[in-house]
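ARCHIVE RECORD
Type: protein–small molecule complex
Small molecule: iron/sulfur cluster
Source of inputs: curated submission
Record status: active
Notes field left blank by submitter.
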Amino acid sequence: MMSEGTFEKIINELSQLNYRNRILLYNNNECLMDERLIEFTRVTRDKCPHADVQIETNGILLDVDLAQELMNAGMNRIIINNYNTGNNPIPSIKNFLAEAHKLSLSPKQNITIIFREKNEVLSNMAGNAPNKKGPASSIRDFCSWPFIYLPVIHDGSVPICCCDFYGDEIMGNVNEDSLLNIWVGSKFRRVREKLLRNDRTFSLLCQKCDWHDGILDLIARSPFAETFSRIASQI
Ligand code: SF4
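STRUCTURE (tokenized, with ligand):
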């Protein structure tokens, strides 16, 4: 688990930058297993009052009281990935839905439930997903992740992207350097230069990865998504 000291250093740096974009209090872990999540949410909201704070969970440990506590602490969005068959809620989500009327949310807060198939196959997560193999050879296609996300794993390491949850391709460590230095540093710059040329051969992870995104996906996940959708609705 990430130490409180590492977490506070990250949030303090974001606070000094007056950071106003998205802060995800998880990576590929089940964040509700960490009993410090409510306190971490409170600290994040306190230090970054304009940020969009989110979590994603499988919902097994979630109930309405916990959701309300997280929202009261300053969470903006909870995404629940309900893994089951045939769009059926798992027992905890069934209870959650039955009691959802008790929730009191502000207009800036929402809870989304995504009904996923239990054996759903998504990206191969740079070869780390147990249910999908990588492409036979490195694909030539763009990937936007190192342009828009800076993940930090438990020991403060900053991996190349959120798929690198074992920390195989490290760009820096927040305990040794600032977030900003790592983000604009030579390692990330090299990764971006290669990906802009659709070249994945420079990285053992990118070589094995089947993720690719077209320009529309890129826009949808960018901080400008809202502006683009407003323009699109006026065309
Ligand atoms: S191509 Fe590389 S940077 Fe992009 S998601 Fe895959 S491993 Fe991550």
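CURATOR ANNOTATION: Residues 4-16 form the longest helix (13 residues).
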